[in-house]
TrEMBL record:
Keyword S-adenosyl-L-methionine: yes
Compartments in which it is found: Cytoplasm
Major subcellular location class: cytoplasm
Gene: trmL
Known role: Could methylate the ribose at the nucleotide 34 wobble position in tRNA.
Organism: Gimesia chilikensis
Single GO MF descriptor: tRNA methyltransferase activity
tRNA/rRNA methyltransferase SpoU type domain span: 9-148
Swiss-Prot/TrEMBL GO biological process terms: wobble position ribose methylation
Name of the protein in question: Putative tRNA (cytidine(34)-2'-O)-methyltransferase
Length: 158
């Protein structure tokens, strides 16, 4: 995907902790033409050595940006529909209708999304179904599921 083309969707990781999860999510972003936004602070470094160690050898193909605050991304993508993924949602992923250009926000592996973010526009909160015995799902698995559900709803890749 060239950097000048419009991303199919936007994936925002709020303060991700684990580089391998970010790497897997980034790989899926490359596969589907999504832009990845990383909201600092990050739990890892973005230098070449650390990226290689996390298996991110395709990073040069990724449309991505690191920003200092969630507010910065919200301002830059204010004209978009935002979806927040949280285990505290009451609405299932399958009940939402996605369109190209939508934004998917995921919290950190250790803390999820802050309550202030989750509580703002709760109608935009989504979750994957799971039994109560499971505390949470892996961030990369969740993000990949969400992106491919969006692609499925779009009717495939352009």
């Amino acid at each position: 995907m060239s950097s000048s083309s419009e991303p199919l969707m936007h994936v925002v990781l709020y303060q991700p902790d684990i580089p391998q999860n970010t790497g897997n999510i980034g790989r899926t972003c490359v596969a589907v033409g999504a832009k990845l936004w990383l909201v600092r602070p990050l739990g890892f470094k973005l230098d070449a050595k650390h990226l290689r160690r996390a298996g991110m050898d395709y990073w040069q193909h990724l449309n991505w940006e690191a920003v200092d605050s969630l507010q910065e991304v919200q301002e830059r993508l204010s004209d978009r529909t935002w979806w927040k993924l949280t285990k505290f949602a009451t609405r299932l992923l399958w009940d939402a209708e996605f369109e190209p250009g939508h934004v998917f926000l995921f919290g950190s592996e250790s803390n999820g999304l802050p309550p202030s973010v989750r509580d703002a526009s709760p109608e935009c909160n989504l979750k994957l179904p799971m039994y109560e015995e499971v505390r949470s799902l892996n961030l990369a698995s969740t993000a990949n599921t969400v992106m491919y559900e969006a692609v499925r709803q779009f009717g495939g890749l352009p």
